[in-house]
Amino acid sequence: MAVSIDTVYQRVLAIANKEQRGYITPQEFNLFANQAQMKIFENYFYELDKFLRIPGNDSAYSDRINILEEKIAFFEKNKVAMSLVDGDSYLTEEVTNGDFAAFADFDTTSYELGVIQVAGQTETTLASGALTLPGKASTGTRVELTNGTTQFFGLDTGRFYNLTYTITTAGTTNLRYFNNDSSAYTSLPATVGSHTVIVEAKGDRLFIRNADTTPANTVVFSSISIKEVVQDTATLPTDVYRLGTVFYNNGTKNIRTENITAKEADLMEQTALYKASELRPVYVRLSATRLRFYPANVSPVRSISNVNCNYVAQPTTAYWGYNITLGQATYNQATTTNFQLHPSEETSLVFDILELAGIMMEDANLVNIANVEEAAKTQQELT
Length: 383
Fold this sequence. Notes:
The protein has 383 residues and is α+β, with helices and mostly antiparallel strands. It is built from 6 helices and 20 strands.
């Protein structure tokens, strides 16, 4: 159901032109139409708040709260997915070395914190600021990125990491990574260029391996990095007007995520007893379009498939479509967008638009006509 914008326009023109008050152009009407639609729409929420404080009745068709909820229901959307992003790119663990210059002093027993370990100098080549993994008969070669020792950070089992690397020479397609268990490997993109792969940690150690058994089939990296995926920030759907309930699905059930203020989040993070948990998640509204979740890390990791929300959508922009023929605007249904409001709002739209048109034309009588009709409608609803 919707309100025909052409019907509203024709009625507005008929009333405005009854006493030769003037013509309202399509451009002017479209501007007034959307302002009137938003005024009526926004008023739903104020009226609902007011009537919730006033006892209603048990009638199925005349209870004022039920009527308002029916009008708002046109715009309600449920369980809509949100897109997830890494929280402002702040990450808890990172190992990177763009030119591998520090590798020159490495051997298999001496490492530096925060720099990639080269596992076996005889199996890798460090030259011209690059890391080369050649092929090797029977075994191939590998570089160890994490090992959990005091010199190196280790991956946390069950968490997710972005493995990002740039290849400048691609001499094999047999590139893979493995996490602790060398028998359980996953193939990696091996073409020239930058690549990012999400790794779920099965243990603290992570290796990249050139499994090619031909020594000449080398892979040259200009950079490698490991960053923990912190999916704690979400972008809301673009048509959100009033946000309702936010959910996180942990694979077993939908968990309601509570809205708190940034100040409350700071206090909560400092208090172990009240700190957010996977079974009691919360979020802070960062802006009109972004949310931040606490705790940052959950299992399974947040994704577009398990974070969603209920909300009231903003009405689509109403538009009276037209073509110009011999200097006259003629209705074009194909390019028209009707009002999304409940059909009962047709009269309100007509007189709200008339009021705006009267202000534009500096016609007090037209404004008065609209005000009288609106006042009568308001009085009818209150009595």
